[in-house]
Amino acid sequence: MIDLDLVLFLKSSISSAQRRLFEIRGCLDVDSRRNRVAELDEILQSESVWSDVKQYQELSREKKRLQSSVEQFDCIAAGFSDAFSLLLLAEEESDASVISSIKDDLFRLQLALDDVEMRCLFSHPMDENSCFLEIQSGAGGTEAQDWAAMLLRMYLRYCEKKSLIVEVIACDEGEVAGIKGATIHVKSPYATGLLRTETGIHRLVRKSPFDSNARRHTSFASIFVYPEVDDSLGIEINPAELRIDTYRASGAGGQHVNRTESAVRITHLPTNIVVQCQSDRSQHRNRDEAMKVLRSRLYEHELKKRQEAQKILEDAKSDIAWGHQIRSYVLDQSRIKDLRTNMETGNTQNFLDGDLDDFIMASLKHEAILSGAFDKDGR
Fold it and tell me: What is the pTM of this model?
């Protein structure tokens, strides 16, 4: 005996998903991407392209990126189509076990569809890139440093849930607890688009475990996300304008990392931008990684100079305190609220465990509405 209500629900879910796919197909311009992949196939077979290694690599990367998005869309579309056909067959044969398995498959397909739909909201030219995410503790002392460590864990968990490749390249431990700051490198496509709306001040309110009287404390930490850039953008760095310091890494790292001066800090003197890396036992590799961070920071710096309307990112970063926050985490009231979208959740533990997608989607839609790309209903 099969559950007819479940069958109707699954049919409705598939139909709804297929309508979303139709909208996404136009938003992502899947057909144009498919045609461009075929065009790149022909171009890459030309001997004239082989002689130019840089051009060949750029075109290969473009093909790989476009092909990946087209294949993902096709796979999801085929998955829903196959699920519908199988559901009709299972209904006809009254096979409850197959219907149950279709329900599980649809859950996974819905998650993949959510990811593809989110990409429709990526409007910045660097959204497809990997990114760096910086965390800096602010006003609040030890409490703020503990809050920064909580945020680091939250973003690492988010990246893990999204199957993003991530590496902590710098982490400055606090004197008592938590961290003063950290930088993570998210090495996956579309990482910038996924995380850039997290840029801003995050405010924590809770009864402090570091207060013997268990009083309520307010702390702040800043998040700053910027895309990873490569040499093709022409970001030139004059070695004479750099101050490079080496030091012993702090925190856990095994018997080697804390005994040698393998950590690298680079200061770009004209802009006073400071980057550091201590993730590897090799000073040379840490220096290379720090230069990648610096190149990305300088790209973002130049972008801000040209787009003065967006400099609020750096302005907010300079004052990690009251009046600049984008999100409040009031843990003793079990409430997290985004001050840009007014979205709230009472499930604070799940959120701190990395369930950020709903808030990120809301922020991207809010941004799209402000830019005029979407209407007030987010369409």
Answer: 0.75
